[in-house]
Structures are given as C-alpha cells and as structure tokens.
From TrEMBL:
Organism: Luteimonas rhizosphaericola
Lineage: Bacteria, Pseudomonadati, Pseudomonadota, Gammaproteobacteria, Lysobacterales
Originating gene: ftsL
PANTHER family the record matches: CELL DIVISION PROTEIN FTSL (PTHR37479)
Subunit structure, as described in the record: Part of a complex composed of FtsB, FtsL and FtsQ.
Family per record: Belongs to the FtsL family.
Protein name: Cell division protein FtsL
Amino acid sequence: MTRIAVIVLVIAAVISAIAVVHARHQHRELYVQLTRLEHARDELNIEFGRLQLEQATWSESNRIDQVARTRLGMKFPGPGEIVVVRP
C-alpha cells in the first residue's frame, strides 16, 4: 500500500514538473509576442505622428494660397473684377 502511494506521488510530481515547464515556455512565447506587438505599436504611433504633422503642413492656409497662386495661376480679383449678384 505504501509503495503504491509513493509511485502515485512520484508520478504526480513528474506531471506537475512537466506542467510547470510547459507553463513557463508558454509564458516566454507570449512575452516575446507582447514585446513584438509593443514595438509595432510604437512604430505605428511614430508614423501616425508624422502623418499628422504632414497633414497640418499641407492644410495650412499659407500653403494652400501658395499652391493656388503657383500651380493654378489664381489671384485675388481686383476691385473692378468683382461683380455682386443680387436676387
């Protein structure tokens, strides 16, 4: 009877040890994946900041005025070119 109890306890200890090793291995894999995802998140945040800066630059009123004048040849109308249309 004592021998059976010892064998059962040894088997339980081996199974417990294998479970601990498996859990640690899974923890390490998940930690590596978390680190990769955090790095990707940081890269995306940096790119988002760059895109926001670029959008602010392109939508600035001075930039729009400059593009309208140089590329499209637009200009402000003179006083004689303004026509008021009334209903």
